[in-house]
Input
Amino acid sequence: MEQKKEKIKKYISKNFKWIIFAICIIIFTAIAEDVFEKEIMKKDIIGYYLISKYLISDSLTPIVKVITNLTGTIPLIIITAILIVVIKNKKIAIAIALNPIIALIFNQILKFIVKRPRPSEYQLITESGYSFPSGHSMVSMAFYGFLIYLVYHYIKNKKLKITLISILGILIFLIGTSRIYLGVHYTSDVIAGFAFSIAYLIVYTTIFKQVIGEKKNDKENKENNK
Output
């Protein structure tokens, strides 16, 4: 019995990221299936009710608009440009730049397939295009989530690491929530966007790790041959 438990623990530990990948794909697929059947889910109704009743205010709305725009084209270009200048490893810089572009392509493909109309109950800003999955949620999770990965693996200062990861994690959550607050997405759009991007990030970071690892090995081989 103990041996079986140990084997299970080892298996989970070894394949943890792929277990998370599978869970995220299942969540996304389950939500997408309901959306295809044109269902408005309980989570959508509850999300709208809570935000419209307890959160929406004239003083908070301008702040939410600023938060939601942190995944806009211009802010992402500025942040990416700064990181490209600051980061010495150009492979990492290129990976940061490509990441949101790939995520956005996936988002547009999924939106074209599902073709879910945006919510009509209330809209505090004007948005065009389809609703599912949330593009801001997908891109924010992909872009800022990848920065979390880089911070975790490359920053040695523990306090700085925890601080940056916390800030980026909260930012991702706030951007997703802002889309519901502003009335341009259902709760299920945001959850599905997050789930898909987490699964996408697992694949992206796996490929990234292999590319960076190969580069490191090539560099070491060249130094050994000198």
About this structure: The chain has one domain: 2-220. The two ends are 54 Å apart (CA to CA). Residues 215-226 have pLDDT under 50 and may be disordered. The chain is about 80% helix and 0% strand.
